[in-house]
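Researcher: Quick one. two chains, 560 residues in total.
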Amino acid sequence: MRNKVLNVFSIIILFVVIIGQLAVAANFTGYNEDEVTKVYDKKGEYIFSIAMGVTTGDRYISQDNKEYKVVKVNNNKAIAEYEGDIELKAELTVNVNNLPFMAVENKKTVGIYHTHNDESYKPGSVSIKGKGDIHDVGRQLAKSLKEKGIETIYSDNLHLPHDGAAYSRSRATALSIAKNRPDIILDLHRDAIPDVSEYTTNINGKNVTQVRLVVGRQNPNRKVNDQFARRLKAISDKVTPGLIKDIFYGKGEYNQSIFPNSVLMEFGTYGNRQRQAIDAANLLASPISYLLYGGKGNKPLGSDVEQRAAFRTVLWIIGIFIAGLFAYLYFIEGSLEGVKKRIKRFFGRELTDKGDNK
Amino acid sequence: MSLGLIILIIVGVLIFFGAAQRVLDRLYLSDNVALFVIAAIIAGSFFSLPISKEPLISINIGGALIPVILVIYILSKTGSGKEIFRTIIATVFTAGAIYSVTVILRNFGEGRDIIDPMYIFALTGGIFAYIFGRTRRGAFVAGTLGYIGYEFVNIFKLITGRINTEIRLGGAGVFDSIVISGIFAVLLVEIIGETREKILKR
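Model:
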């Protein structure tokens, strides 16, 4: 009898969990690409828009290096708290006149792919059944990087439909690029906010799209990816000022756990012209080149900053793993003694007679 | 690549494989077989069998073929027709749930979710397997086949010309949603099961 009651009880709990999940997600069911989240500061001043879900805890670094943290989200409006001005690493004093040193024996490699292949620009359909305009943007970036002596792995693999499992499908692509051990992996997109002016700037007399960097908060590589994004922005701010629009730290994984130094890029929005995005891709090759090889007074990627971030993350992962395991065992056993016994039993079994199945 | 990054990758992979080994252990495979299966999944991750070239459909050995063989093996060991039936029902529900989640919530996975979709797929498999079968084996089967079932819908759409895409079933190998769903579904049942036993004991 007690067993039956418990069964019913656990099933109800499970349903509550799954319905709860769906209910929160259902806030977004009305979402389509034309809908955006607008983010304001506490005084009600507009900061930015993004065609992506914004959740509490998300972070944002604006073009003028002001850092914000999202504290409240209400439908398509979010409130972010100003956390102060940040100074992007002072070590990044790039001498623009001094072209990066490209040692042949120190060949660098950049991986490029598109999770959302359909993404295109106006005029014409902004979502194509197949390889959209974004593919040309990716190819241009690959071409410009090659001209600077950087190897590129460009993948035009399709991952359609553009649904919730698109990132699951593009995982295979990210992994196949990662197998070739590139230095960085970029997933190129275009945003879907309606205001084109927010994503357009003029560099060297040309109207080009700006580029937003998106770092996923939900993965173990986030600290390394964060450093990467900040360094790229710092360098771009000197080499091609205005090209990098901002950095958004969203709740998501974006396949960035596959490989450290992965970042998602939004090249303008659908209202921009494809030409503007292609020109932006061409410009971006310069800061990427500086980032990989290091300019005068600028250390190349892979230096101490990245090392420290990686080591810190390793310690965090091990710490969380041990704490989680301990909490689980304590819950099961109900006492510290029980946990000790269980750990002893586990090590005795695993290290002496190789398991319990014999 | 710097030393820090290499260690970061190794630690992540070790923890994941450790969990995977414990999970296979729970599926009544002996330690040696469990290790062999993991080795086969990792090695198989590097190879894909082409099914069709135009449109491209391929199946990865480590990410899809070995998990499916494992599923067949586990089902054959199950013996009870009732358990197999329940497992099939759980699989169908899981595939349906994954399809609904990805289609209704079109931009699911772009930061609008509480947890990453990959874990949602696993969670769904675990939950349905638990409701219908309440066994670890059932959870593994539903988690693994559920995601494949969802991709079969896309394969059908692709073949009938409704979408233009390429399907790499299990293409991410050991890191594919198929493998991760199977493993997480079992871990979920494990946690729920242990918790229930704990409550029952009181």
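The beta strands of chain B are 48-52, 57-60, 167-169.
Researcher: Thanks, that's what I needed.
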